[in-house]
UniProtKB/TrEMBL annotation:
Transmembrane segments: 30-49, 55-77
Organism, scientific name: Panagrolaimus superbus
Protein family: Belongs to the SPCS1 family.
Basic and acidic residues compositional bias, start-end: 88-103
Keyword Transmembrane attributed: yes
Protein name: Signal peptidase complex subunit 1
GO cellular component: signal peptidase complex
Membrane topology: Multi-pass membrane protein
Length: 116
């Protein structure tokens, strides 16, 4: 996604492109409510006027409205930022340092011990 953002013109790159998890939940609920309300209104209007195209026009308008409200990354959807844990420093020993322990040979089979 960052590669796509970098291809945009400079004025568009300054907009934030993330929505936090709580914002995603809000966006989904808003989208579903708008679509259901538009469906009910479209059905009622289409039924009363006996025009099927009105049903689909109202549903399509609800879809467009829902997308205009939900798709942009409004600040309302970014109120709970994600606090990532800090990246731990890699403290694992290198393979060469791990094999040079005192009294340990690099190959356990050459220690002369037989494992059953």
């Amino acid at each position: 996604m960052d590669g796509i953002i970098q291809m945009l013109p400079a004025p568009l790159r300054r907009f934030s492109t993330y929505i936090d998890f709580a914002g995603q939940s809000k966006a989904e609920k808003i989208f579903q409510v708008i679509i259901v309300i538009a469906s009910i209104i479209g059905f009622v209007v289409g039924y009363l006027l006996q025009q099927l195209w009105l049903t689909f026009a109202i549903l399509g308008g609800g879809f467009v409205l829902a997308n205009l409200i939900v798709l942009p990354c409004w600040p309302y959807f970014r109120k709970n930022p994600i606090n990532w844990k800090p990246n731990p420093v890699d403290e694992r020993p290198t393979p060469a340092a791990a094999t040079k322990k005192e009294g340990a040979s690099p190959n356990p089979k050459k220690d002369g011990k037989k494992h059953k």
